[in-house]
Each structure stands twice: as C-alpha cells, then as structure tokens.
Sequence to fold (531 residues):
Amino acid sequence: MSYTLKLRIWRGDKEGGEVKDFPVEVSEGEVVLDAIHRVQATQAGDLAVRWNCKAGKCGSCSAEVNGRPRLMCMCRLSDFEEDETITVTPMRAFPVIRDLVTDVLFNYEKAKELPSAQLGPRDADGKRRMAQIDVERGQEFRKCIECFLCQDVCHVVRDHEDNKEAFAGPRFFLRYAELDMHPLDTHDRRELAQGAAGLGMCNITKCCTEVCPEGIKITDNAIIPMKERVVDRKYDPLVWLGNKIGLRNKDDAGRTEV
Amino acid sequence: MASTDQGVTSPTRARIDARTLRQDRWWLAPLTTFVVFSAFVVYATVRAFMGRDYYASPYLSPFYSPCLGDCVEGASDFGQPFAWFPLSAALIILIFPLGFRMTCYYYRKAYYRAFWLSPPACGVAEPHQSYSGETRLPLVLQNVHRYFWYAAVLVGLVLTFDVFLAFRPMPAEYAVGDGETSGIHMGLGTLLMIINVVLIWLYTLSCHSCRHVVGGRLRHFSKHPVRYRLWTWVSRLNTSHGRWAWYSLFSVALVDLYIFLLATGTIQDVRFF
Ligand code: SF4
Ligand code: SF4
Ligand code: FES
Ligand code: FES
Fold:
C-alpha cells in the first residue's frame, strides 16, 4: 500500500533558506529517512542529509520532524495520518551547514572540556575490580549514541545562543553523573559540573529526557542526582560541618577536585 | 511571538521564522497545569487565611496540622506554643509543605513550564531574552530542597498521627442514626484521611532528595547493601513522583474541603462504624 506523502523539507544554507514541498510516494512501514532518500533519488539530487546506520544506533540522522527532535531513521510514517503534512527541518539549536545538515561542533568542544576518568592504583594482582551492582549503575548512561537531540532541544542553549559558552548540556551531565558515581574514579568533578559546565542553568524541565531516542532518564537519573551531589559539595551546611569536624563521608575518600 | 536574536532565529541557525513547528496541542499540558495549580493556590490561600472551620472532631484539616496557634478546642495535640500568633494558625506550619512543594524537582519542572514558560513545551521557543537558570538568587535557593524534605518527614508523621486520632469516637452532636458508638469510630472522613496520608507518604518518600539521602549519594553500592536496597525501593517510587505530587495535592484539598463542610454543618459525616 503506497500513498503520496505531503512532505516538506527545509532547504538552504547559512545565508538563508525555506521549507519547500516535496510530495513523494511512500509505502507502509517506511520511516521519514526513507522518504527523504526517495526525494534525494528522484527530485532533489543535491539534498544534503547526514545518516549512517538506519538502525537508530549511529546518531547521525538527527533532525526535527514537525518541530520535534527525532532520529529520522526511527521516525515511522505510520505514526502519522496518511493525509498529514510532515515537515522536516535541521536541528534548530546548531548552526546550519546545508539543508538538513548542521554543525554539531559545539558538542565536541564540550566533550573536550570534560576531564576523563582517572582511575586509582590497581589491586595487588594488577587488576581493577568493581562489584556488579556498581557496574550496572552506569550502564544506562552508556547507552547514549551521541545523537545530540537532547542538546538540540535544551532551551538553555536552543533559545539562548549566549549560554553556549557556559553550558555543557544534558549529554555531558550524563557523563558527569556517570563518573561521579564511578567507584574507581579519583576525580571530584562536582565543582566543575556546577561551575564550568553550568549544571545550575538546567531548570530540570525534562525536554532532554523527552527526546532521547535511547530512553535514557537523563533528568531523573543523571541531572537531578548530580544536582544533589553538588548540593553536598556546595550548599549543604550540615555536610560542610561534617567535613570540618571530621565526620567525613568515607565513600568519597580518595578523590581530588579537578 | 517572535523569539529573540539569541534563540532559534539567531543568525547561524536554519532560517525558520516560526517559534515552533509543532502541530500537536503542546499548549494543553502547560495550560492544564496552570489552571489546576492556580485553582489550588487560590483555594489553599483562602482556607489558610480563614482561620476557622478546620476542625470537626475528631478530624483536623491537614492545612492546620499540627495546630500550634490559638486553635479551637481539641485541635491542638501538640500544645499551642504560638498561641500569641494573631493570624490563622495554618500560616505557622504551611510554610513547610509550601516550601517543600515549591522546591520539589517535579513541581519546579511543572511551574517553570506552565507559569514561567521556560520553556512552555519542548521545542517551543521561550519568550525570555536572557536566562540564567538556577544559578542566581532567588532560584539558587532551590538547592535547600533536602531541608524541606526533612521537615516534610515530620509533617508526614504528624498527619499519620492525625489519622489515628480520626478513629476516635465522635462527639454526640455529630452522631447520626442510632447514636454514638463507644470505642473507635470510622467515617468517610477517616477514610479520606487514610488515603491522603498514604499519598503524602508516597510523595514524600519518592522525593529525589530522599533518593539521594538513602543511597544515591554513594559511589559504592556494593559496600552498603542495606542503603542500596533502600535506594532501589525509593527509585521505584521515584519514577512516579510526579503522579504522587498531583494525587497528594488533590487529596489534601479534598480532606480539607470535607472537614470544612462538616465543620460548617453543611454535610454530616458518613459513618461506617
Ligand atoms: S532538563 Fe535541563 S538539561 Fe534537560 S533539556 Fe531541560 S534544561 Fe536542558
Ligand atoms: S543522551 Fe540520548 S538524546 Fe542525548 S545524545 Fe545521548 S542518546 Fe542522544
Ligand atoms: S541513521 Fe544512524 S541513527 Fe539514524
Ligand atoms: S518532593 Fe519532589 S523532588 Fe523532593
């Protein structure tokens, strides 16, 4: 069963552009990326689009479908009515290069600013050990495919270009949280997370969680726990007093602030 | 509404004038939140300032519990240390549940979206020119949430105590049917209070600060099996924290309304035994 999809695609570059109509034949079971490819094959050979795996695993085909950040390869046409118009635009938080392709350099710059794991000394037999439940805790965060849809939807930078300097974004709060929960890591990044990474700018409105194609509970499981850890470090007078009088939380021992 | 030059229409972005291309009814959720919260705030404010009709023996309204001011006879189970307080006794204690809910991570999300439109919905440009999140006063104070949680645990205990008191026999003037029973009693008020206190506890124990305190703050679950177990329980409750936030908001207002109607003599308690 095929039908003509009322597809609209944003075309242009940094000089300007507009949404144009590309009615295209599609069939049941296809995804938005299939329709885009058909447009590219039959109507607009120079349409720029980034993609790779077509399986929701490479994180390349991020775009916005009817205003919502989506992976085009995971966005089923069957989720829309057949007579519905589908508008596809590039991600609107990042500089556009051409058509559906944006420059996501911002995210790589932020990744560079994040100190990587610094593991402590090995056990006597030359190995490092982690208990299974401690390993499991971070697994959710490692599902991230770096599609940057969360970074795209986050209003802190999407609506405020001037915040990009001071804000790392949800994908990196995920990483901060993962490392802060890591039993073997010796860096204490709480100050850094609140300061340089701008964790305090997040107002936990959960859009990152809403769009994450991997279903990672970014806000509940990474950002809020990280905010609570920052409170321990910076805002809780009782924790501060405890540290002063030597009632130190041994669980934190052996970390140095970066 | 056109966004600013800093946002989705700023120079480097794909040139699209619309503030959002969403076609679904994205405004419905913030609008609903706005209407319901506003209604609750109006109701709670009126009731808190009224200073009367909060006690219908044996029921005490949760807005007035513990009743530490110059309260009506029978309502003060913890004494009246603030008997000199000239205004409604509710104002003495409501600051704690109010602060708890205002700094709650779930409510923050809800009111930042619905009242401050920051953002109104995902992928919908917010109307503000600049934004600093929770980094400055007053919003940096949201970080005290855990202290309100400690207070909320105490409030929860008091409300639980009230439920036990709600099983007391009713005074003769409220007696219906074949008269007052001796010993315990249970009425619709008791039932509502039980439901309310269960929802309050679900809300309080599913709190993100609670999750952090019981075990989330650890880096080695493996070395703290009991706290790990607690953390898994709280985590499970926590996934529905928003739901408990809403339900307990309704239940608290409902219990108060029921007691108000009893105290004003508008209705009579439905007695089970
Ligand atoms: S929860 Fe925070 S990080 Fe996530 S989208 Fe909202 S403001 Fe951005
Ligand atoms: S956290 Fe989710 S939305 Fe963000 S980059 Fe990773 S997979 Fe994409
Ligand atoms: S093409 Fe790889 S995620 Fe869509
Ligand atoms: S009560 Fe909602 S997070 Fe604490």
Summary: Chain A touches chain B through 67 residues (CB under 8 Å). Residues A 51-54, 56-61, 71, 73 surround FE2/S2 (inorganic) cluster (ligand 3) (CB under 6 Å). Residues 3-102 of chain A form a domain with the Ubiquitin-like (UB roll) fold (CATH 3.10.20.30). The first helix of chain A runs from residue 32 to 42.
